[in-house]
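User: Can you fold this complex?
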Amino acid sequence: MALREKELTVGDRRETVVVDNLTRTQIVMYAGASGDYNPLHSDEVFATQAAGFPGVFAHGMLTMAMTGKALTDWVGNGRLKTFGVRFRGQVWPGDTLTVTTVVDALRDEDGEPVADLKITTTNQKGDVVLTGTATARLDA
Amino acid sequence: MVAKRFPVEAGHIMMFARAIGDENPVYYEETAADTDMGGVIAPPTFVMAAAQFDPDYTLRPRPGQPWMGSGRTPSGTAGQEGGGGGTGLHAEQHFTYHRPIRPGDVLTGESREGRRWEKQGKRGGTLKFSETIVDYRDAAGELVVTARMVGVVTERTPSEGES
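Assistant: Here's the predicted assembly.
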């Protein structure tokens, strides 16, 4: 499952589509599971008429969570040491998100091999919606 | 967002994994035993669901109390708070993992303030950033996850931008 140090090279990259045509229902599912019921994300009337947005949009944390799926699918279960992101743009219903992960460095930390990863999540127009970094433990 | 007691349940992890579109068998009770983890673990951003266990969490409606979302009017609290002022946005989120979270863990979240700084924004006037760090510990007091949130408050509502 987990990545092996000798199978990786700095610059290795992987692209993963983590959602194709994001639905309002999935945003509602995330609200229910996370407990973040901010109506900006599920209430079109509030989002447009009270808050002045073009419509509801995804929680930033849903975008981070879907980005995390791309990471764990690659580095394996329970392997992340750190995962951090900046939210760069809103994600709307209908969006398709692609996560690009690049191996930025391979090094030892606390006596075990790790990979530093650079992460970019883009929508179908090529706009960056999230950037981030992660460090994952590797098998020797 | 602070949960004094955040009991981690397999059903909650299942709902969370479904919501983020992740069918990894390690998040589902019926399949997790056959994975390399030997049982269910939580996805990397799961501690955000501690909001469910924060009694004072402001983004959850409560019976009989005004709620900002729409009902008879587009906003149930229009004019009562905020009122055309700035907007709070989630700018960054960082996690440090000390060990995987598993069902049966009872976590506590303790929040502390981090750095504060200001920046001139292009569209939203002055941007005020602030960090909140939450240490999630298990029943033995051991650190499980450290979460660092950076929030930003803008003077004006940006028409488009960060979420």
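Chain B has one domain: 6-58+75-154. Helices of chain B lie at 10-19, 29-32.
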